[in-house]
Amino acid sequence: MSALRFPNLPPSEPQGSDLLSQERARTTFSVHEMSTFLYGEVHLERQDRLLALIENDPAFDKSNRYFRGRSDRFRAALRKDHTLVKLSQKHKWTPEEYSHADMLIDEPGPFGLHRNMFMPALASQCTDEQIEKFLKPAMRYEIIGCYAQTELGHGSNVQGIETTATYIPETDEFDIHTPYLTASKWWIGGLGKAANHAVVMARLRTAGKDFGPHAFCIPIRSMEDHTLLPGVMAGDIGPKMGYNTTDNGCMWFDHYRVPRISLLAKFSNIKPGSGEYVKPPNDKLSYGTMVFVRASLVGAARHGMARAATIATRYSAIRRQFVDKDSPKKLGNQIIETPVLDYSMQQYRLFPIIAAAYACFLTSKEMMRLYHLNLKNMASGDFSLLADVHASSSGLKSLTSTMAAAAIEDCRRACGGHGFSSFSGLPLMLQDYVPNVTWEGDNYILTQQTGRYLFKSFRELVAKRKSGKFQSTQINNPTLAYLNTYLENPNLKCPVTSSAQFHNPEIQLAALGHRAASMVAQIVHALDVEKRTWNSMLVDIYNVTMAHCQLILVQNFILGIRGDLAQPDGVENPAAGLSATSKEALTDLSNLFAMHTIHKQPGEFLISGYLQDKHIAMLGESIMDLMEHKIRPNAIGFVDAFAFPDFVLNSAIGRFDGKVYEAYTEMATREPLNKTEVVDGYEEFIKPLTNPKGLKGHTMQSRL
Amino acid sequence: MSALRFPNLPPSEPQGSDLLSQERARTTFSVHEMSTFLYGEVHLERQDRLLALIENDPAFDKSNRYFRGRSDRFRAALRKDHTLVKLSQKHKWTPEEYSHADMLIDEPGPFGLHRNMFMPALASQCTDEQIEKFLKPAMRYEIIGCYAQTELGHGSNVQGIETTATYIPETDEFDIHTPYLTASKWWIGGLGKAANHAVVMARLRTAGKDFGPHAFCIPIRSMEDHTLLPGVMAGDIGPKMGYNTTDNGCMWFDHYRVPRISLLAKFSNIKPGSGEYVKPPNDKLSYGTMVFVRASLVGAARHGMARAATIATRYSAIRRQFVDKDSPKKLGNQIIETPVLDYSMQQYRLFPIIAAAYACFLTSKEMMRLYHLNLKNMASGDFSLLADVHASSSGLKSLTSTMAAAAIEDCRRACGGHGFSSFSGLPLMLQDYVPNVTWEGDNYILTQQTGRYLFKSFRELVAKRKSGKFQSTQINNPTLAYLNTYLENPNLKCPVTSSAQFHNPEIQLAALGHRAASMVAQIVHALDVEKRTWNSMLVDIYNVTMAHCQLILVQNFILGIRGDLAQPDGVENPAAGLSATSKEALTDLSNLFAMHTIHKQPGEFLISGYLQDKHIAMLGESIMDLMEHKIRPNAIGFVDAFAFPDFVLNSAIGRFDGKVYEAYTEMATREPLNKTEVVDGYEEFIKPLTNPKGLKGHTMQSRL
Q1: Was domain B288-640 assigned CATH 2.40.240.20?
Q2: What angle do CA A524, A529, A535 make, to 5 degrees?
Q3: With contact defined as beta carbons under 8 Å apart, do A647 and A104 qualify?
Q4: Chain A residues touching residue B2 (CB < 8 angstroms)
Q5: Chain B residues within 8 A of A697 when measuring between CB atoms
Q6: A686 at interface of B, judged by CB pairs closer than 8 A
């Protein structure tokens, strides 16, 4: 029971639900058709089915999520993960169904890394014997594992880790040891409290040599009672900005002995007795998993942007503020405040985010297709796709997760004060999202890999062109294509003479391609001719990677609408089901995304020589015009098409029905501080100041 | 007792404390002298004195701050605020001492708004009678108040609030009422649980007319026992992204009657009986307080940037990662990883933030001086400074708080994974800081006020110049000066021919002035000639305000180092005490700030026509060179000069002594989840999966 009760009064007119109905009535396309384009029928049907199973299960109840302290939240997350395992076993879920349910529940839990890192690591590095011993029990959740790579003093540079695994020929064992405090395993999700096994990365030492980091699967807690095994110390690393429902843990080893089979031996091994090291056949194979994880993070970015944009856009259609004097809104005869979504600044803050989310939908699907294609190719010994896919997945992880973290925060701020309330759903979402910019390769460090690939491609292309044997038919990927176009004419100028011409996708791609290629050329010159150090060029390398990846996003958006993106075998092209109105609406977003991408960083485009001053002004006009006349009427339709159930949003202000203020006040009554009318602490900390003598009667008020 | 114990092992070499000592040894200037330049002796002496009082008082203990749930944190904050009041009474603190102590304790508490909004509102709007009745008891903390302006449906637009205060001639009372759910008071700091009085903004209705929002000081909770008074309902609005130690509250009124004296009547009043409204003499007077609050927020921005930069810079000098192959570091004969602060990207992420913090130190002091000068002027009827001060304080609040929020998050990310840990001190700091971009005028809305002033100034200047009577000696403020320079020669080109020439402050100011003025000219043309609507220009108006305020920051930085910023009466110019080495170091920062400000948004400078492509490349080179050779050696000195005690930072990784990993692991042992070895929930949620039959012995491990 809450001591806080709100009056039985409606919000003042117009009502949020009426406003959203009006918005929906003027949407020019079919929202369901658009959702189907984004997700496919299978996803949408599955979502309805899973939601029905989950929504009313008390283990997945979200009504207390914003109020609990960490220990309570962790216990609830443990219960949630347990129930999810049971449900998945009962319904025999596929991995896709499990992930989809997990997305709907939307709470990083203690078993998350078991599924997303521990099992994939085992799957890719176990021998057949190890599959029986480790992977199969893990799939049944008898073994619950974590992936222990990062150390207190060592993150991005895996080669720098200090934990050792020394082979002891006498007993055919490894001695796992933590030589320094900095070698303590740290940040390991699921390790703090839940896991009973760990894949530990440690320096393999044998026969007097150090062979660098290798993976070992070892027990850390007793299978009988979950106590720590002798020689292992572990615990939780404490509170974080987000992810507090996961037990990120720390661990150290005191000459902990494990049998030789602990070394995951699909690729490299130790000969028993002699301890001779057997080298892996091809170290490129491990890149596959990284590509998968990074491609998944592009998907996570589009999810984050879409979700935040849904909340902020709906709320902005309902929230009214000031009167736009040039165009006042009326309700009957009365002038009322203007919905904030009608202000050009609010549109400029939100609509490019909606467009970016759509852009990332198409690119995340394309990255997944390329991942699977490359995996298939590599299995048959063809590594031709690997470099390009690895470079673009690294760069796109960096670009899109930086975009998404900024977008979620921008959406939060665009909701004014209410975006700061947990009830908006945005703070927790942001806090759980932001580690994406750091993990799986820090966004700044990661771009060096993309840069290396671009410079190598450029140098090879230049050499080929000089050799006299070059034919443009040799160009077999889009990166080489735009680099070659630039080399054909480095002084190309944009032919646009009116703002509407920037809707031409060929112009957009030419601008983005020329800018990226000119930056590549300039950096290669600095490195190769001016002999600048790599370190001194890091800022430029970051910038060129962003430029390259922005081009990929725009390109895939354009191709995707046209139906010109390849699809995995047996998958119908989603563009085939698009009506003309949907295609037009998508083209509006694609134009906005491309033009805004250019317009917000005009410097590089001007310096590349392709655009001139006048073009920047034209782009600005074209963007404002497009947003006001084409995007604004469809804004609610665009975010409705993201198809987030209210259960996922968990937001008072982003609800589908628009009952913002009713939901918000109801949530406030549940705040634990409102359980009592007079706060705990009044007697000790307020009364001694305000009524120290304990006077009866309304002493102070009598002064009035 | 924690179940988590770390080994008695040191971090691997080199030790953090040694690294910081080496950094400090090569600082070229006196850190104490630099601190004195920033803060003055009075502040530094006061800090030592207050810290000694506070640091070991259990009421101000920070060791549990990162672990508590909201209700516990709120209770601790109540205790903290209570103790602070008692301490201030015991030691007869001045307001400056109180604020300084509050900054050191660094936790927004339930009495914060009493001091920062309630009492100032009373002080500026009370009659002499009301000072006795309200302000004096408030100063003694008998009355604890809050400032209730914002409503659930109404934020930035104060004119839109819906709460009514209807004068009842029969009883000489006001009837305070909440007509709609949207009229519920919302976000009011201190209202949720602590306050017994409120200054309520409500629409004054009398004699059949609505006179818009007016301030009323009314009791809301009983002075006897703190229960809510009949007709008032109030409570806490629930958890937020930050500020959870403050009880932001909500409130609604059911025809709540208060006597006429509740209307704060210094400027306007009601005649008893007739209810006739007596108008305020000059509504400009209320702008003074806004200027004060916004100038304070510039100070808060520099505080946030400086503090985050201190943590991230110290940690980056200790954290090592990868080997810079072109310039490997050695320890004895061993190649060791390179400190991340030696990478140009890390320098580019952090050093401009250090420079921006220094810039904001100078501008925040200058804004405070102007506030006091303007106040003095207004008291004698001189309103000549008001428009400029109001415009620049609005724009600077917007610019600097946006910069600071980004800077804190950038510093957090620059600490890699450990920046995500609460123990870094950065997440909580960010969460408590970010409302600054929304409150006291949303950063996007606020800039319209600055824009209006700029356009008006420009139009008047153009008219004066056309009138033929114009003389440049009429230019009496820096805004008119740069607008006039532009009008003298709109086609001016930058004469710089080598990168070092960008160290010339006149060139920096010319570039910033030409860019801002050309944007003003373009917008005025769009509004006046092309007849574009105000709404359609909001993005440009925001951009021009940022450009204008960046110029102010650069200008004050340059003038401040030279000793050419005016000082308040009786205050010695802090630049007078600067030695040549300190001046040189400050000039390095000033150059970095100016050049980076231009270089990160080159588009507007290119479009203004002042800079050409080649200049952008020169600026880039100059920035990288300056950072590597001049800023890097002094980086630790620059942040040490911010003089934040470890007590304020509350950061494992930003400590003065560099014992990062030792402090970090010690903090982890205090995590409540580590109190037990086996987690609460194991029996219900883990064991049924991993050992459902309750088998004894290490059953699973026997498989190994």
Answers
A1: no
A2: 60
A3: yes
A4: 235
A5: 224
A6: yes
